[in-house]
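Re: that backbone. Tokens:
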């Protein structure tokens, strides 16, 4: 797509919430430890936050939004829109953002809707939500992003050690003095099967066999209602498309590597992210990671990394960023933006689920 420019939108705050419970990828039988250690080194993930005891993704989302609103001191009736980017909806319908509008006590004049996207979801979400903001449009928007993707069933080890659960909340506000944002997007639907849950949609509804393990051509046992990953296809797409997208955006905007303070990538795994970094070059300190402590947190991984690794930086000075998300779809989205200091606490941990329950469902 042609490079898109958005003016007069400022980032005001960013919060991250993860479950307090976490899984240790090295907590295996001693006989399996050596092989698991090798896997952990390759993917770069030791710990993964995981929802347990009835906690679900919308609990993380509610807590992230509450912490953001409280931290900014925003009155709830000044929030014009609440947009949720997730693949972990509370119900097939209605949109989870609308349920959260009620749970958060936001005004009924608040627009609320969901965007279904994973790995690249943060950059696409920020771009779409920033596009809604202007002098005669929305003034304040909260963007919730994340997924409940952690797995503990141990059927597909290559997948099971990757994903962590998280939700982030980002506050955007109209500001005539804000520096412009630039966005580059790319989609290749021919690769839609590279990351897919085969059953559960209208083409293949859930059935009694959906949870049966089946031996796939690559020798891995998988269920039809769980995430299937084509590792080589994901690696090839990510390590080719992400550098091209970032380089193309930088060329169009007129940026050199030294003009960017931090490149924050979707946290896919260590091998993919290191390959992208080496193709791009630059100071390794300018490429932060949250993989070791949080794993691949899907669309939340860029803001999780900012909260975990750059909280002090983001809250204390102006920063020039490139954020690049890539993966499911297949898709890639890259943002360049410059931010003034904004509210950016370190990640919060949620101990237990909220008491919210539907009232009319038997």
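Recovered sequence:
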């Amino acid at each position: 797509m042609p490079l898109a420019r958005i003016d007069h939108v400022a980032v005001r705050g960013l919060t991250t919430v993860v479950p307090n419970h976490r899984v240790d990828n090295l907590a295996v039988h001693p006989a399996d430890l050596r092989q698991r250690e090798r896997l952990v080194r390759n993917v770069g993930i030791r710990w993964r936050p995981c929802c347990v005891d009835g906690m679900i993704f919308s609990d993380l989302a509610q807590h992230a939004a509450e912490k953001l609103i409280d931290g900014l001191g925003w009155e709830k009736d000044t929030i014009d829109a609440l947009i949720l980017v997730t693949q972990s909806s509370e119900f097939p319908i209605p949109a989870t953002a609308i349920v959260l509008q009620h749970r958060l006590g936001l005004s009924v004049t608040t627009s609320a809707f969901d965007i279904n996207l994973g790995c690249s979801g943060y950059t696409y979400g920020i771009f779409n939500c920033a596009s809604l903001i202007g002098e005669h449009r929305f003034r304040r928007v909260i963007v919730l992003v994340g997924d409940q993707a952690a797995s503990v069933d141990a059927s597909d080890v290559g997948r099971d050690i990757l994903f962590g659960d998280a939700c982030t909340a980002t506050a955007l506000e109209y500001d005539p003095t804000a520096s412009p944002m630039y966005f580059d997007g790319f989609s290749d639907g021919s690769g839609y099967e590279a990351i897919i849950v085969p059953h559960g949609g209208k083409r293949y509804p859930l059935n009694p066999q959906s949870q049966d393990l089946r031996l796939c051509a690559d020798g891995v046992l998988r269920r039809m209602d769980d995430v299937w990953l084509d590792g080589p296809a994901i690696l090839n797409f990510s390590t080719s498309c992400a550098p091209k997208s970032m380089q193309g955006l930088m060329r169009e905007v007129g940026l050199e590597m030294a003009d960017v303070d931090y490149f924050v990538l979707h946290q896919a795994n260590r091998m993919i992210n290191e390959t992208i970094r080496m193709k791009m070059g630059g100071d390794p300190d300018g490429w932060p990671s949250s993989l070791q402590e949080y794993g691949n947190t899907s669309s939340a991984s860029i803001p999780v990394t900012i909260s975990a690794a750059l909280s002090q930086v983001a809250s204390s000075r102006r920063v020039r960023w490139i954020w690049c998300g890539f993966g499911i779809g297949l898709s890639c989205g890259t943002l360049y933006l410059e931010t003034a200091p904004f509210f950016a606490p370190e990640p919060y941990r949620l101990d237990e689920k909220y008491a919210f329950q539907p009232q009319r469902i038997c």
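Residues 7-179 form a domain with the Peroxisomal Thiolase; Chain A, domain 1 fold (CATH 3.40.47.10). The first strand starts at residue 4 and ends at 6.
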